[in-house]
Amino acid sequence: MYNPFIPQATDQVSQSQAQILDNFTALEPFGNGYAQLAELTVDPTLAANQVGLYAKHVGTKPALFIKNGTTSSVYDFTTATLSAGGQTRLPSGVLFKWGNATTGVGGLLTITYGTAFDHAYQVIITTRGTSVGQTVLVNLQPASVGAASFAVYSINVTTGAATAGVEFTWFAIGD
After folding, report:
1. Residues 6 or more apart in contact with residue 52 via CB below 8 angstroms
2. pTM of the full structure
């Protein structure tokens, strides 16, 4: 086991050499630029002041997890849904979701996330073009952002009329 108190300023190398060598042995798994983690089948039990970093399978693929012993929160931060619509999570617990859509009748569309956020903090929307051939503004209605969904309303910049058929991409941030 690694001993953080070796060597001390007053130690003579000849007297603490065995302990220094033990420290190098304890650090050996990290010497090649990587650490090999044992793969767990269940999340570990941790004390309140501990954080666990471990490997576990998600489906058929190995993933890296972090667990906070104080809150018991577990986050998979290497698995992502890699497609036009998907999600991924950071080790801090921040969750990103994204997708694309087209406004419907009356220029209104409600996007429902596959799985709700605990808290939704921000939704960013950009136009992708339009199948209606007009210059349009896609406006996110801030009051409509929720943990499970958000609403988008598109209007024609010139006429102010609601405009259906506006393509857009969205990016949501929450936890």
Report:
1. 43, 44, 46, 65, 66, 67, 69
2. 0.67
pLDDT of 101-159, one tens digit each? Answer: 988 888 888 999 988 999 999 998 887 765 555 555 655 555 578 999 998 888 877 77
Domains and CATH numbers, the chain: 1-36 (no CATH), 41-76 (no CATH), 95-174 (2.60.40.3940)
The one-letter amino acid at 171: F
- How many other C-beta atoms are found inside a 10 Å radius of the C-beta of residue 64? 16
Report the SS3 class of residue 15. helix
C-alpha span between 6 and 9 (Å, rounded): 9
Q: Contact 47/69 with Cβ under 8 angstroms?
A: yes
Q: Give the DSSP letter string of 45-111.
A: P--TT-EEEEEEEETTEEEEEEEETTT--EEE-S-B--SSSEEEE-TTS-EEEEEEEE--GGGEEEE
Query: What length is written for the chain?
Result: 175
Q: Are 171 and 98 in contact (CB under 8 A)?
A: yes
Radius of gyration of the chain (CA): 25
- Round to whole Å and give the CA distance between 58 and 45: 19
